[in-house]
Each structure stands twice: as C-alpha cells, then as structure tokens.
Amino acid sequence: MSEIILEMKGVRKEFPGLVANDNVNLQVKKGEIHVLLGENGAGKSTLMNILYGLYAADGGEVIFKGNVIHDNTPKKAIGMGVGMVHQHFMLIPALTVVENMILGMQEGPNPVINKKEAANKILELGKKFGLKVDPYAKVWQLSVGEQQRVEILKALFRGAELLILDEPTAVLTPQETQELFTLLRGLTKQGLTIIFITHKLNEVMEISDRITILQRGKVVGTVNTKDTNKQDLARMMVGRDVVLSVDKAPANPGAKVLEVKDLEVKNDKNLVAVNKLSFEIRAGEIFGIAGVDGNGQSELVEALTGLRVVESGEVIYNNENVTNKPPRYLIEKGMAHIPEDRHLRGLVLNMSVKENMVLEDFYREPFTVNHFMKFDKIDAYSKELIKEYDIRLSSDDIPVGNLSGGNQQKVVLARMLQRNPNLLIVMHPTRGLDVGAIEFIHKRIIRARDNGSAVLLISTELEEVLTLSDRIGVIYEGQLMGIVNQKDANTNELGLMMAGSHKAS
Ligand SMILES: Nc1ncnc2c1ncn2[C@@H]1O[C@H](COP(=O)(O)OP(=O)(O)OP(=O)(O)O)[C@@H](O)[C@H]1O
Ligand SMILES: [Mg+2]
Fold this sequence. Notes:
Blueprint: E1 4-15, E2 18-29, E3 33-38, H1 44-51, E4 59-64, E5 67-68, H2 74-80, E6 82-85, H3 97-102, H4 115-129, H5 144-157, E7 162-166, H6 174-189, E8 193-197, H7 201-207, E9 210-215, E10 218-224, H8 230-238, E11 256-266, E12 272-282, E13 286-290, H9 297-304, E14 310-317, E15 320-321, H10 327-332, E16 335-338, H11 342-346, H12 353-356, E17 368-369, E18 372-373, H13 375-388, H14 405-417, E19 423-427, H15 435-450, E20 454-458, H16 462-468, E21 471-476, E22 479-485, H17 491-498
Parallel strand pairs: 3-8, 3-9, 6-7, 7-8, 13-20, 13-21, 16-19, 19-20
Antiparallel strand pairs: 1-2, 1-4, 4-5, 9-10, 11-12, 11-14, 14-15, 17-18, 21-22
Bound molecules: adenosine-5'-triphosphate (ATP) and magnesium ion.
The site of adenosine-5'-triphosphate has 22 residues, from strand 2, helix 1 and helix 14.
C-alpha cells in the first residue's frame, strides 16, 4: 500500500442556495494519476479550489503530507507543494513566459528577482521534464498547448509535488493531448502526484490509475481504472445509461443558405489564414469542417460572423452579399454563432445568467417594449432555458462567471439554439460538457437541422464531426482538401487529409 499524500475528509462547501461539496472524502496516493469525474456542476473545480486555498471550506479537513491544513490560502498551498492549472488559464498575455513565472513571487527578504536566473531555471526544468518553452516569448504569441506547458512549468517552478490539472485537454488537439500524457507519465516517474479532471472517458481509461466519481456534490465512489470501463463510468456519473452514439435521419437539404466563394482572410500576424476557400451549405444540412486547430478555422468563423475583415472573395447569405457586414446585421438576419472561446465572445462574465440569456435580443420585443425593458419577460425566458438545458446553478441572478465551466457553455448553447437560427455556426460546441450533456446537445443540433437550419459545425473532435455532419470538409492551411459525404467518410482518409493530402477522387 503506497503512501497517502492527500486526504480530504468530510469536506463541505455551500454557495448561497446550493451545496457544491457535500461530505466529500478523497484519498490520493503518492505518485498516482487520480481522475476526478462528474457531471457539469458536480463540484470538481470547487473541491480543487478548496485544496488550493482559493475557497474556504465550510466544514471538513484537508490533510496534506500528514499535516492538517488550517486557514488555507493559495500561497500556503503553493508553499506546501500544491500546484494547480485552472480550467480557464490565468496567464497574462502581454507578459513573457518568465515574467508570468515570477509574478507574485516578489516578496520575502530579497525583493529583487533576477529574471535571467529565473529564465535559466525555466530552461533547466524544461530539460529535466522534456518541456520545451522559450522563456522570453510573450504569452499571447503561444499556442494554447504551449500556454498550458507554461502553466505546468509555472507550478513545477514553484516546487509542486501534487499537480492539479482542471480539464487540461479540453482545448488541446489529439497530438497535444498525447504529448501532455507523455509528460504526465514522466512527472509521476519522478515522484509527482497528479489530480486530473476531464470529461473524456477515453482519456480517463488511458491515463489514470484510480478514479473518484462525484455526483451533485457527493462522492459516488473511488475505483481502480483497470477494474472499470467507459459505460460503467458514464452510468456512475450521470446515474443512467448514456447513449454514446447519435441517431439521425438522412438530411433533406433545401435552399442554399450560405455560399462562400474564394474567401481570403488574414490572421492577427497578417498572414493568409483562409486561402481561397469555397463551399456552400443548404437549409436542413450539417456541413462539418474537420482539421487540426490553427489551420484557419477561427479566422473563417470570424470572417463569416462579421468579426474579421474579408480580404477578398464573397460571403453570400440567403442570396445577399454580406461580405464584411457587421455582426449585428447578420444576427438580425438570423445568423447565430456559438464561439470557440466562451469567455472572450460567448458571455459577459460579470453580468447575471439572466442578462446573458438575452444578449442579442434585449433591445427588441418582447424584452423591450416602447423603450422599457420587461424584466419579468427576461426572467421567465431565462428560467425556461435553464430548465430545458439542465443548467445547474443556485440562482440566475449570480454572475455567469460563477457557474461551472460546463454550465457556462450550456448558457451559450441555450441562448443560441433557442433563437431558431436560419444559419447556425458552431465551433467546438461540446467543449467541457459531460457525456450526458453532449448527448443532449448533439440531439439539439440535429433538431435544429431538422427544423430547417443550415449548420456549419467546426470541431477538432473528429468523432463529433463524423457523427453529426451530413457532409464533411477537411481544412488544412486555410484550404479545403476535399469534401466527402458522411456515409463515405472514413477516419483514415480524413486523417490523411487533415495532415495535408488532397482527397483521392
Ligand atoms: N463562486 C460561486 N458562486 C456561486 N455558485 C458557484 C460558485 N462556484 C461554483 N458554483 C456552483 O457550484 C456548483 C459546482 O461547481 P463546480 O465549478 O465545482 O463544478 P464542476 O464539477 O467543476 O463542473 P464543470 O465540469 O462544468 O466544470 C455549480 O452548480 C456551480 O454553479
Ligand atoms: Mg469545473
């Protein structure tokens, strides 16, 4: 029996009107990878925030390396050897890697921190753990995967022995995920312990030694990974059987809704990101775009939704040339957009859930009549959506930023799907959702199609694109490598196209 490095006993945490952690017991062994699994809002991030000293528990005990921790704070937790990489990154984009590392460390007897020394230490640590990072790169210039490496390195830099990773793979490509897993295995070999939160059951089976399942704030159980399987885990977590595949009738495409002709768009670095791209989508069909992240998907979506300038080419929407029209114009014409980054474009975090539900429509009837906002209407509408989309929260008056990650995503989805859009542009729709919620959202996207919406689906999850789409295009370096019908698609060919080879015809 190996040593227990962490024990949480009878931990309780209440938010007004809601018990987020209810008598939670958790034991983590030194050197293991321990997964926390549970539905959106089950209390995983809350429990880890207590361990990291960000939240004070209302009851219970945290015992780390044999010591009961009193009055925990992040500083104390870091000092003891706890490191955390949050669900939403906390780096400062305008600063360099090394500046981010030493941020908040300028205390103690020697107030001056030598940047050069820190940079050397970063390189040294990078070598030791096989993590390549340029200490002088600005964080905004790094890819998401690189930013994550910086977050991990930051924790190691501060001497972490227990590393908490809250949904680290939600934003990673499959390749980056594999790199992360190699890194994590290396870390445990050097004696580190890892607590890992993810909703992806394949990953749970692949990377973990043991799994603790939470349901509505309570622990359901702890199991050895080798004694369980995906179906059992889904059942323990959701409390019912989950259908992991999608049922859908063949598409019945109608009139042309969107036509993209020779579109050219540049990225933030002023390089061509979308390169003479053309495709069309009809009412009642789902057109999926698969591809490795960073091949022009973000720029394409931004150009279509009026958020980025089109350099050349045309966007024709319902027979109207809407190239470079502003977002509100497009929204009023029935376009809805589920953005890739819910924090940047999907939500106003410090506004209430209720207010977020009507961001596109608050100024129109029925929410505003004769210049007066009808708060009772907004209230009723919001309550209806919360119920229908099973959004777990204590009150719709709290800032949407206080919701769990998955519940924030559900707010964006509910708001957009409810508008019965004529064109629905969705990017990574199920990022951060639990398996039950994914099943529900997939059904909703298909229902939108069956009700006549034209749907553009962009996702790095090849499986998601494959199951939902009627036709699939593969994007590589801003160009479509080919378009295939769902029934003819095979993962192998798509994979090759994602790596840049043209469709064999
Ligand atoms: N600061 C807060 N104020 C009010 N409610 C909160 C706050 N933080 C969390 N909650 C609520 O507590 C519950 C647990 O949230 P938590 O973030 O721990 O869930 P989670 O298991 O991490 O879910 P997800 O998988 O969606 O990230 C949720 O219902 C959430 O809305
Ligand atoms: Mg969470």
